[in-house]
Amino acid sequence: MAFFANSNSKSTQKQKHNADPALQPWVEKYRPQSIDDVSAQDHTVSVLRKTLTSTNLPHLLFYGPPGTGKTSTILALARQLFGPDNFRSRVLELNASDERGIAIVREKVKNFARQTPRAQAVSSDGKVYPCPPYKIIILDEADSMTQDAQGALRRIMETYARITRFCLVCNYVTRIIEPLASRCSKFRFTPLDSSSARNRLSYIATSENITVPTEVIDTLIATSSGDLRRAITYLQSASRLASSTDPPTPITPADIQEIAGVVPDPVINNLATVLGIDVDIQMSDSTKTAQKPNSFDSIRKRIKEIMREGYSAAQILSQLHDLVVLHPTLNGRQKSRAALVFAEADKALCDGADEELWILEVALQVYKAVS
After folding, report:
1. Are 365 and 297 in contact, with CB atoms under 8 Å apart?
2. What angle do CA 57, 158, 100 make, to 5 degrees?
3. Which of 152, 183, 244, 371 has the greatest count of CB atoms below 10 A from its CB?
4. Which of 250, 282, 251 lies closest to 265 in space, CA to CA?
5. pLDDT tens digits for 98-119?
C-alpha cells in the first residue's frame, strides 16, 4: 500500500509541474529554446554557437539591461548542451528570490559544484546532445550578492573549474568584484532594436491568433524601452483585457499606455503647450481657451488636474524630460537649464518630497527656461 501511495504522489507531483501551455505566461511560453531563437544579440549568439561543437565553455558573465535575453540565452545553451534528461542534474539556477549570502555559497553552491557529473545518458527524445563533462551553475542577478559571497565564490570557481562552469547574470557589471569578473568571459547584452522587437511581438501575436495593429506594436516598443520581456507582458495583459468583453474589443495604443502606467501622450503634450513648448497636437477650441499660456494660474491648474488623475510623478517627470530634451526647436541652453531642474526634482522625489509641489516647481522652471 505504501508503494502505491508513493507512486500516486509522484505522478500527481509530475502532473502539477506539467502546466497547460494555454495558462502559461507568454514570457515563459515563448522563451527561446535554442540560442538561434535569441533575438538581436548576434555577437553573443555567434560565439556561444561555437561552444556547441567544441564543448569548451569558459566561465561566463552576462550583463546588460533587464529583458534583453541574458537568462534565456544561458538556459537555451544548457538545453542544447545537455538535453532534457540531463538538464536538471547538470544545471543549478539561483535567482534573486533565493538567499545568496556567504552561507548559501559555501553550502548549496559548493556542494553542487563538487559533484562529479554523471556519465551521458541516452536521451529520451532520440536526439544526440554533446553533454560535456561539466555542470553549469547560473547565478541570476549576481550583482545583488554580497561582497563576502562573491569572494567565497571566487575560490569555488578556481577549485572546481574542471567539472563546473559558472554563468553570472547581472544588470550592473560594476557591482561584480574585479577578481570574479576577471575569471569570466564577458558578454554585453544591448537593448533590443525596434526591428527585432517588432518581429518577435508580431510572431507572438500571430501564434496567439490576435490582431495587433502596427501602431500598437510601436507603442509596445516605446513603452518597454528595449525590454522585450516587459513588452510581451504588456501584450498578454492587453489581449486578456480585449477578450474580456463580449464581443472582444480591438487592442489600441491607449490600452497599452494604460497597462504600462504611462501618462497618455495628449496629457503630456497639453502640459507642454501650457509651458510654452510648441507641440503639434490637435486640441479643441475650449481646451485652447482654457489654457491661457503665460499664466501661473493656468500652469498650477493643469498640474492639479494631472495629479488628481493619479499619474506617477516620476513618470510625468521622465516623459516631460524626454519631450524637452528631444525637442527639435529648443536650443542647447534652454535644454540644459531644463535638465538641471529635472535632475534636482528627481533627487527630491527620491528623498520623499511632495510630488505635486515638485511637479509644479518643475513646470514653472521649465516655463522660465524655454521662455
Report:
1. no
2. 90
3. 152
4. 282
5. 676 777 787 888 889 988 887 6
User: Quick one: cell of 21?
Assistant: 501551455
Burial code (b: 16+ CB inside 10 Å, e: under 16) for 288-302 equals eeebeeeeeeebeeb
| Cell numbers linked to 18 | 506539467
The distance from CA 159 to its chain's CA centroid, rounded to whole angstroms, is 34
Instruction: Enter the C-alpha cell of residue 288.
Output: 485652447
- Cβ burial of 86 (10 Å; 0-12, 13-18, 19+) is buried
Tens digits of residue pLDDT in 284-329: 444 444 444 557 889 999 999 999 999 999 999 999 999 999 999 9
Give the three-state DSSP class for 172: coil
3-state secondary structure of 199: helix
Cβ atoms of 183 and 153 closer than 8 Å: no
93 phi/psi in degrees, rounded to 5: -115, 125
107-111: long-range pairs with CB below 8 Å, 24+? 109/137, 109/139, 109/153, 109/156, 110/156
